[in-house]
């Protein structure tokens, strides 16, 4: 049975939760391997909407063991708020496992994130202000606090003291903010220990043993390829590796255990926050996609920037991640358009570029070269097989598949769990 990586192909919000939910009954484990509560998955089950921010979306499927792996940064307040919210709605959350090596978002990380972003002014990156970046920075600087540190008060005290000795100077002298007390941070973190203790495990070993038993493990990425800290539109990116390689380092499994890599891509393009976006629409068509697609962030509520489908980005995603299957979502949003433009290349300084420019400056100034496809007017929300789609919708999907160079194995035609067309077995 396979180890499967599921990632976003664009700038996030592609509908990865829906793809996870589609596979849910065939999964044994679902693993979150990067990011924190700075991104969200929305899953609709029998008309009920579930918005998840930190938890793997597999937690909604009975029998699946959800895992928060070592590559994630954890806000404990958010973690237990989400768990309590799901429990009140009758969801069994008792199977959750949390890596002892995952890093903790502290109160000072959240403060630093917000004041730093304000300090940047017009150069703001567009972070969520939830402390993700500063926590990853401490991790790389070897000054982070891990889950396991909470179970040794002396170590925790020493680490918080060491961190605040530097950060309070920054808060006081640069940002003109009050200093943060060591005791208040330590006490807040220790208040979660008893609830956290039964959830903590050596998740790398847990997943290794599961794969040896032939069980199916899905590694669910937060954010998306174009937000990857190494391979995205830097510096307008997240602070972790959201690509398939991040599943290996972020969970502690070996690269040769991965069998399939599934990328989720919208039938158009969106992004949240600042940064280049060649196909962005600041006109009535942008409004159309935003309203029809309900393009507001699951975590932040921010309105997403919208644009037409960008084929070079999809090809880039396929190459960087080694994609075996694409899941195309929100095809139904395009219903009613007479013509649907697709970006097939860029123009940069008068020259055609068929691939994503390596230079950030070139990408920022890239002008889309569009090819238009005829649209359709028929309601496709109830369609469940590819051949039932209007011919123009079929042709649109096949054109995107050809441009991406990788098969489109499933197509979302609505927000509901059942509103999906399966063309190829995602696990086969």
UniProtKB/TrEMBL annotation:
The pathway where this protein functions is: Purine metabolism; AMP biosynthesis via de novo pathway; AMP from IMP: step 1/2
| UniProt xrefs under InterPro entries | Adenylosuccin_syn_GTP-bd, Adenylosuccin_syn_Lys_AS, Adenylosuccinate_synth_dom1, Adenylosuccinate_synth_dom2, Adenylosuccinate_synth_dom3, Adenylosuccinate_synthetase, P-loop_NTPase
User: Which gene is the coding source of this polypeptide chain?
Assistant: purA
State the NCBIfam families in the record. Answer: PRK01117.1, purA
> Entry's SMART domains?
Adenylsucc_synt
* Assembly with partners or alone: Homodimer.
Tell me the Gene Ontology biological-process terms attached to this UniProt entry.
Answer: 'de novo' AMP biosynthetic process; IMP metabolic process
The answer to keyword Phosphoprotein applying to this record is no
What is the phylogenetic placement of the source species in the record? Answer: Bacteria, Bacillati, Actinomycetota, Actinomycetes, Micrococcales
Where in or outside the cell it occurs: the entry states: Cytoplasm
SUPFAM superfamilies xrefs:
P-loop containing nucleoside triphosphate hydrolases (SSF52540)
Task: Write down the EC number.
Answer: 6.3.4.4
Q: Give the source's domain of life in one word.
A: Bacteria
Which keywords does this Swiss-Prot/TrEMBL entry list? Cytoplasm, GTP-binding, Ligase, Magnesium, Metal-binding, Nucleotide-binding, Purine biosynthesis
| Name of the protein in its database record | Adenylosuccinate synthetase
């Amino acid at each position: 049975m396979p180890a499967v990586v599921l990632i976003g192909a664009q700038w996030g919000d592609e509908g990865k939760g829906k793809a996870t939910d589609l596979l849910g009954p065939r999964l044994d484990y679902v693993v979150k391997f990067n990011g924190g509560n700075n991104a969200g998955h929305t899953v609709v089950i029998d008309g009920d909407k579930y918005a998840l921010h930190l938890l793997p979306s597999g937690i909604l499927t009975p029998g699946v063991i959800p895992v928060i792996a070592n590559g994630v940064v954890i806000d404990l307040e958010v973690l237990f708020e989400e768990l309590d919210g799901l429990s009140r709605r009758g969801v069994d959350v008792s199977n959750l496992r949390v890596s002892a090596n995952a890093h903790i978002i502290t109160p000072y990380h959240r403060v630093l994130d917000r004041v730093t972003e304000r300090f940047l002014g017009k150069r703001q990156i567009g972070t969520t202000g939830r402390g993700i970046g500063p926590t990853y920075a401490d991790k790389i600087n070897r000054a982070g606090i891990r889950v396991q540190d909470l179970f040794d008060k002396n170590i925790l005290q020493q680490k918080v003291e060491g961190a605040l000795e530097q950060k309070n100077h920054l808060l006081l002298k640069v940002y003109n903010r009050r200093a943060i007390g060591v005791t208040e941070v330590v006490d807040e973190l220790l208040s979660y220990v008893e609830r956290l203790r039964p959830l903590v495990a050596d998740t790398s070993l847990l997943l290794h043993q599961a794969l040896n038993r032939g069980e199916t493990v899905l590694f669910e990425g937060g954010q998306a390829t174009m937000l990857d800290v190494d391979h995205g539109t830097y510096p307008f990116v997240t602070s972790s590796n959201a690509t398939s390689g991040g599943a290996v380092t972020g969970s502690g499994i070996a690269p040769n255990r991965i069998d399939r890599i599934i990328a989720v891509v919208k039938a158009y393009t969106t992004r949240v926050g600042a940064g280049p976006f060649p196909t962005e629409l600041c006109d009535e068509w942008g409004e159309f996609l935003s309203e029809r697609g309900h393009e507001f962030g699951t975590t932040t509520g921010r309105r997403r920037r919208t644009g037409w489908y960008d084929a070079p980005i999809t090809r880039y995603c396929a190459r960087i991640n080694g994609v075996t299957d694409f899941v195309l979502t929100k095809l139904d949003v395009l219903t009613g358009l007479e013509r649907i433009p697709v970006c097939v290349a860029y123009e940069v300084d008068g020259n055609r570029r068929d691939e994503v420019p390596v230079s950030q400056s070139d990408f920022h100034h890239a002008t889309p070269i569009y090819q238009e496809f005829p649209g359709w007017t028929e309601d496709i929300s109830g369609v469940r097989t590819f051949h039932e789609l209007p011919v123009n919708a079929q042709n649109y999907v096949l054109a995107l598949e050809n441009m991406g160079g990788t098969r489109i194995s499933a197509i979302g035609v609505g927000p509901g769990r059942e509103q999906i067309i399966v063309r190829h077995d995602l696990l086969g």
